[in-house]
Amino acid sequence: MHAYGVQPSTGMLKMDAMENPFRLPAHLQAALGQRLGALALNRYPGDRVLDLKAALAAYAGAPAGSAVLLGNGSDELISLVALACARAQATVLAPVPGFVMYAMSAQLQGLGFVGVPLTADFELDEAAMLAAIAQHRPAITFLAYPNNPTATLWDEAVVQRIIDAAGAQGGIVVMDEAYQPFASRSWITHMRDEPERNQHVLLMRTLSKFGLAGVRLGYLIGPAALVHEIDKVRPPYNVSVLNCEAALFALEHADEYAAQAALLRPARERLQAALREMP
Predict the structure, then answer these.
(1) What per-residue confidence (pLDDT) applies to 60?
(2) CA distances from 129 to 12, 91, 93, 114 (A)
(3) Considering just the CA atoms, what is the radius of gyration of the chain in Å?
(4) Cβ atoms within 10 Å of 185's Cβ, excluding its own
(5) Overall pTM > 0.85
(6) Closest alpha carbon to 250 in 4, 36, 66, 50
(7) How open is the CA angle 101-231-92, to the nearest 5 degrees?
(8) Residue 107's Cα: distance from chain center in Å?
(9) Which of 1, 33, 83, 187 has the greatest number of CB atoms lying within 10 Å of its CB?
(10) What residues contact 197, with CB distance under 8 A and at least 6 apart?
(11) Is the dihedral of CA 118, 121, 127, 130 positive or negative?
């Protein structure tokens, strides 16, 4: 293993981390600075965290009976889910290629990892996924929606059948929606419409792709009973008062970030067209 390293980028057009390239307008920067400057940094985070959880639940349209768990980015949430499920012979399953932290967190927490290759066109191999679930009975199945790094937004019917199979084996499914601001749909709709069928599903998002990569704020939404179990392994005060207030400020100005995403989305088509013209 080696530590996570960030390469120097001074003087370069930095694109390797999939960050939102836009900053806030000057007047919003000033307003945020004034707000952060007034915080009581001599105190540990308190009830303001509850305000952020409520704001995130409202923003995402969380189903009734849900709870929200906050993390220092979604990376920490992935680790917390793995830690909560870590026991002898437990396994994590995910399509590959996928987000590297699924396998890494499994390794660090002592769980096995099973990667199921995607099809040639980067779709889920439903038969292989179902066979792997039946064979390995994974404690956790991760599905990035859309997938990182292939950008695939999986077929909804296939995803639901995989969720059904994982639940029948007693497993949890984590729908990782890190790139939700750039997707045409969210699994939160199915969690609201069919709560019983998705009662073992946890929806994970981050504000990094929303436009706050520097704030390090991830959140997990799911049935309260499940979320409360994972909350038991969360380190105390894992989200700072600065992270919390910056996230609340951003949600109050969500239209600004939505406008940024609306500018970025059409660039995909221009990039694809240029790539197709290359030999």
Answers:
(1) 97
(2) 40, 14, 9, 10
(3) 19
(4) 13
(5) yes
(6) 36
(7) 35
(8) 19
(9) 187
(10) 160, 163, 164, 167, 190
(11) positive
Question: Phi, psi (5° rounding) for residue 93?
Answer: -125, 140
User: Using CA of residue 71, residue 75, residue 76, residue 80, what is the dihedral sign?
Assistant: positive
Q: What is the rounded average pLDDT of the residues 127-138?
A: 98
Q: In this structure, what are the phi and psi dihedrals at residue 34, rounded to the nearest 5 degrees? A: -65, -40
Residue 65 falls in which region: left (phi positive, over 0), alpha (psi -120 to 50) or beta: left
Shortest CA distance to 133 belongs to which of 166, 157, 163, 111?
166
Order of strands across the sheet that contains 66-71: 66-71, 218-223, 201-206, 172-176, 140-144, 91-96, 112-117
Query: Which of 136, 183, 117, 138 lies closest to 156 in space, CA to CA?
Result: 183
Token representation of residue 98: 């996928």
Q: Where residue 83 falls among pLDDT bands split at 50, 70, 90?
A: very high
Q: pLDDT value at position 77?
A: 98
C-beta atoms surrounding 39 within 10 Å:
15
Structure tokens at 186: 């969210």
- What dihedral do alpha carbons 44, 48, 49, 54 form, nearest 10°? 170
- Dihedral sign, CA of 199, 205, 210, 215? positive
- Token pair belonging to 213: 């990569």
Read off the tokens for 179.
Answer: 């790139």
Q: Which amino acid is at 69?
A: L
